[in-house]
């Protein structure tokens, strides 16, 4: 099972641009979410969210006076970013490293950029491979559509 840990990050501005879109604001403007709400919003299980925090993909999540996790808007944005990184096929260990670098701050911009550039290269290679696969499928579909028409005309 692949899981992503999404620890809150203290330098969010750089990472926010990678989020999957606008975060759904909470009614009343409280902006704090229980783990079950985050699970519903992200599609990740509560177990996965806890695991992400354990392995360092998420910074330590704020807690209520009763000890319950309270996720903020920034946590949701970070989870969206991690979701995109996961879709690239980035290994969890590399994602954890990336999260560590984000927490360390601006002095790690170069290393973070290098990780993202390597990932972009891998994604572009996969896209090219999939395009070739799609071309084969299109050719086969056209062949069978033509063969069907030919047999119906005979």
TrEMBL record:
Record SMART domains: HTH_MERR
Sorted UniProt keywords: DNA-binding
GO molecular function: DNA binding; DNA-binding transcription factor activity
Domain named HTH merR-type: residues: 32-101
Membrane-spanning parts: none
Nucleotide-binding keyword on record: no
InterPro entries referenced in this protein's UniProt entry, alphabetically: DNA-bd_dom_put_sf (IPR009061), MerR-type_HTH_dom (IPR000551), MerR_fam (IPR047057)
PROSITE patterns assigned: HTH_MERR_1, HTH_MERR_2
Gene3D superfamilies the UniProt entry points to: 1.10.1660.10
Region (Disordered): 1-28
Name by which UniProt lists this protein: MerR family transcriptional regulator
């Amino acid at each position: 099972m692949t899981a992503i840990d999404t620890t809150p990050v203290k330098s969010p501005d750089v990472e926010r641009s990678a989020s999957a879109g606008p975060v759904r604001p909470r009614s009343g403007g409280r902006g704090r979410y229980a783990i079950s709400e985050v699970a519903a919003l992200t599609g990740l299980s509560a177990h996965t969210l806890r695991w992400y925090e354990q392995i360092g993909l998420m910074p330590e999540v704020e807690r209520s006076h009763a000890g319950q996790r309270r996720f903020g808007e920034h946590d949701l944005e970070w989870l969206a970013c991690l979701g995109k990184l996961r879709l690239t096929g980035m290994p969890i260990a590399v994602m954890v490293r990336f999260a560590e670098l984000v927490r360390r701050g601006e002095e790690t911009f170069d290393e973070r950029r290098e990780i993202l550039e390597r990932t972009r290269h891998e994604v572009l290679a996969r896209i090219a491979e999939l395009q070739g696969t799609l071309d084969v499928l299109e050719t086969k579909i056209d062949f069978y559509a033509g063969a069907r028409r030919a047999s119906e005309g005979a």
